[in-house]
Amino acid sequence: MKIKSQKDFFAGLMFLLMGIAFGWGATNYTIGEGARMGPGYFPLVLGVLLAAIGLFVIFESLVVETEDGEKIGSIAWRPLGFIIGANVIFGIMIGGIPKIGLPAMGLIAGIYALTFVASLAADTFKAKEVAILATVLAVLSYCAFILLLKLQFPVWPTFLTR
């Protein structure tokens, strides 16, 4: 069988592999059942759904004709680096690095850092728009995670709260 859309085929393959990985990882936890869900229930369901979506997309890539075969282009390393770097910086900002004495900077600073670094992946950078986006994300994240879900992690830099 011939691949008629490379983009769809490899996207479906990625979904399938991630779904299998999530499902497999979920088996290390108690699954439970629909009425009494364990900690592994959601990752298992998510994994099954991802795998099913992946299989569907792979099937479509083999059946549906495309004009040029939708070839995969070169990898955009610069945006990829900024997006991955933004997530790493967010993790460091939330938890700090105690081994080297870097304190946790908290949720708000982490969201601002994440937003500004991730926005560097685009071709254009508009500081005013990024600042507005970061502020909206910070306020919504604070409301969702701290006020509504009552999660316990630092909101502000540790040197300000002690």
Shape field: extended
Q: What Rg do the Cα atoms give?
A: 21 Å
Helix content: 55-70%
- What share of residues are in beta strands? under 5%
What's the helix count? 6
Question: Which residue ranges are poorly predicted, with pLDDT under 50 across at least 5 consecutive positions?
Answer: none
Give the number of DSSP strands. Answer: 0
Average pLDDT across residues? Answer: 91
**Domains (count):** 2
Q: Mind describing the biggest β-sheet?
A: none
H/E order of the elements?
HHHHHH
Q: In terms of structural class, how would the helical and strand content be classed? A: mainly alpha
Q: How far apart lie the N and C ends?
A: 64 Å
Protein name: Tripartite tricarboxylate transporter TctB family protein
Pfam families: TctB
InterPro entries: DUF1468
Transmembrane segments: 41-63, 75-94, 100-118, 130-153
